């Protein structure tokens, strides 16, 4: 083979090799661009999701409708009595809870007397533990109706009516808004278009859910839970109406 032919073949091989190298480089650049686009897309989606989460918030983070005058931490407490009373009774109650009714029946007159004298304020946390344990919606709807009665300035009276007319624990009768409205007739001045609409629409059910969560958030797991100035005084059967009165009066004198 002549030198000329050998040089020609060598030149062709070199051009082919150079062409292949150029194609490989272009392919690498394409792969890099595709990968970058995919990463950018993923980041964009993640950012969008982050914006949605940030804007909507979790279920327990956004604002909810609250009854007028609700107090305590995060506005999840309904109270009766002077705000500056020397003693505070904190009560976690469920309107379907038989033990809660027993507590109310036993201590109501003593509590009302101490509230009237100005010595005691009662902070109520409305709880829906029976709905979870037995099923149904009676605890939630009764608590919502009680919150609606707070708007009308009749929470203490309606609270007492609900416990006085508590159905058996396994009967979800308080899930019937019609029954709750009929019971409201027992409280002078409570029924109105605004109250009825509040009950029927479940206006405060989200607020009730948050109020109920305070039971476990505060480290308790049953109703009624009763605290006097932050100290558990009811579990274990230690409390009596007489001892409650004495402790509250002692606090008022100190």
UniProtKB/TrEMBL annotation:
The chain crosses the membrane at residues 33-54. The keyword Plastid does not apply. Belongs to the thioredoxin family. DsbA subfamily. Residues 81-250 form the Thioredoxin-like fold domain. It comes from Streptomyces thermolineatus. InterPro entries: Thioredoxin-like_fold, Thioredoxin-like_sf. Residues 1-26 have a biased composition (Basic and acidic residues). Coiled coil: none annotated. It holds the Pfam family Thioredoxin_4. Residues 1-27 are annotated as: Disordered. This is Thioredoxin domain-containing protein. Keywords: Disulfide bond, Membrane, Oxidoreductase, Redox-active center, Signal, Transmembrane, Transmembrane helix.
């Amino acid at each position: 083979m002549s030198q000329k032919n050998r040089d020609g073949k060598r030149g062709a091989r070199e051009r082919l090799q150079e062409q292949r190298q150029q194609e490989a480089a272009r392919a690498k650049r394409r792969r890099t661009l595709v990968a970058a686009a995919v990463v950018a897309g993923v980041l964009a989606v993640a950012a969008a999701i982050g914006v949605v989460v940030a804007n909507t918030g979790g279920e327990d983070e956004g604002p909810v409708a609250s009854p007028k005058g609700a107090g305590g931490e995060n506005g999840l407490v309904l109270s009766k009595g002077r705000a500056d009373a020397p003693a505070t009774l904190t009560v976690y109650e469920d309107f379907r809870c038989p033990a809660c009714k027993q507590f109310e029946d036993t201590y109501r007159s003593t509590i009302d007397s101490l509230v009237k004298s100005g010595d005691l304020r009662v902070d109520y946390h409305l709880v829906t533990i029976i709905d979870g344990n037995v099923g149904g919606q009676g605890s939630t709807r009764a608590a919502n109706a009680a919150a609606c009665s707070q708007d009308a300035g009749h929470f203490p009276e309606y609270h007492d009516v609900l416990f006085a007319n508590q159905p058996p624990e396994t009967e979800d009768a308080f899930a019937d808004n019609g029954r709750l409205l009929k019971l409201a007739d027992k409280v002078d001045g409570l029924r109105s278009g605004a109250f009825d609409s509040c009950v029927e629409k479940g206006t405060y059910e989200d607020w009730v859910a948050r109020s109920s969560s305070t039971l476990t958030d505060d480290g308790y797991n049953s109703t009624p839970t009763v605290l006097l100035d932050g100290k558990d005084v009811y579990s274990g059967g230690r409390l009596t109406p007489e001892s409650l009165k004495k402790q509250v009066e002692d606090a008022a004198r100190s």
